[in-house]
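Quick start: read one record
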Amino acid sequence: MRSASLALFAALSVMACSRPEPPKITPHAARVTSVTPLGVGLSLELDVENRNPFPLIVQEVSGTLKLGAGVVVGRARSEPKGNVPAKATTRVAATLDVPWTQVGALAPLAASGKPVPYTFDGTAKVGSAKVSFDLPFTVKGEITQAQAIQAGIRGLGGLLPLLK
């Protein structure tokens, strides 16, 4: 009986002292929901794998949107508050409104005649009351010509004085 108690105590001690494992983030989907003179709406779905014996929360998703060959056009942050149970994978949705920090980056969208590739370099902050992880991820896609034209129709003319 004493040896069984010691074995149980040793097993619990090892588990209690083990370090939490960082969750794994896998981008599932990214979709541009809007392109306006004010910015870009981006909808993300992230698969978050929690390998720990305790639940985690996706507290924040943030990042930088780049167009074409890496022109930074804005930064955004979202607080999805997605719950990830212990030893499970959960899909968490985040909606970001990326304001234009370089308004001039919008003009080539409307004039290019073709889709413009984008990259969103993000970080998901995932954790609990006692531990927190900042997990990087990258999502790539493109802004369609139709979205760029609509943004131009809805107000690019009003932005032209700002481009000078």
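The helical segments are 2-17, 106-111, 145-153, 156-163.
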